[in-house]
Amino acid sequence: MAGGQAPISNVSDTARWVAAYRARETARPDSLFQDPLADRLAGEHGHAIVDQAPRIMRNGWSVVTRTKLIDDLIAKSIAEGCDRVLNLAAGLDTRPYRLALPAGFVWIEADLPELLAEKERALAGETPRGVLIRRAVDLADPSARDTFLDEALGPLGPAGAPATKALVLTEGLLFYLDEATVADLARALTRPEIAWWMADLTFRMDRMRTSAMFENAPMKFDPADGLAFFGALGWQPVDSENLLVQARKLGRAPWYLRPFSYLPQPDPRKPLRNPWSAVVRFRPE
């Protein structure tokens, strides 16, 4: 890359960056998950972004931890009766290829057409473990989003049945939206077919937000009232996994951050002053 050029040129580049972290975790002898397709999807650019990341991000501890936590919460949701996953802004995620899904399980990915086309080319010939459906949609367009949700929650799959307990996943998405857009999405997802909504959230992470690394993909969502923002919109957390605490338990927290994982963590339901990051699974009230 040219000197001085930001390693992330747009939000889609973050998908390649995250795939590179998954590839590097897969190569570890003590890996927390196996994603053999990640290296192909990351490409040279994804690995270059990792190599240029600030030190606190370079080993990918937060991405690796959130990947593991989301994997586990998806399995928990399926055990609790989840019959469909809607992955919004799916990026270069490969969970339909690597997770143990029930026979005929419907998994739907939505993202911008250019990124989905790139993914289709890269994964041509690979077989997902469930029924994988991809839809190109601009989730910032309320009309297109609502039309997508009508279809994605309707009769699909081998049985042609509609969803009754769907899980919506927005991994690596909400950071880049403003509060009004997140609120609009929260209201749009309040449907009887949707039982859970899962997201990774960061509050008061000012060093990340002001990093030159994100100048072309600015991180916007940081509500002053933390999780109370979602509560006011009718979504209550049923699982909240603190990333730093879980990273330490999983052996992925950098040594210089481990002491902080033993301190009392901020209450994300109240106005926050200190940094907080987590994977949260919500349910509608």
From TrEMBL:
The keyword Hydrolase does not apply. One of its GO terms (molecular function) is methyltransferase activity. Keywords: Methyltransferase, S-adenosyl-L-methionine, Transferase. One of its GO terms (biological process) is methylation. Its EC number is 2.1.1.-. NCBIfam families: mthyl_TIGR00027. Exhibits S-adenosyl-L-methionine-dependent methyltransferase activity. This is S-adenosyl-L-methionine-dependent methyltransferase.
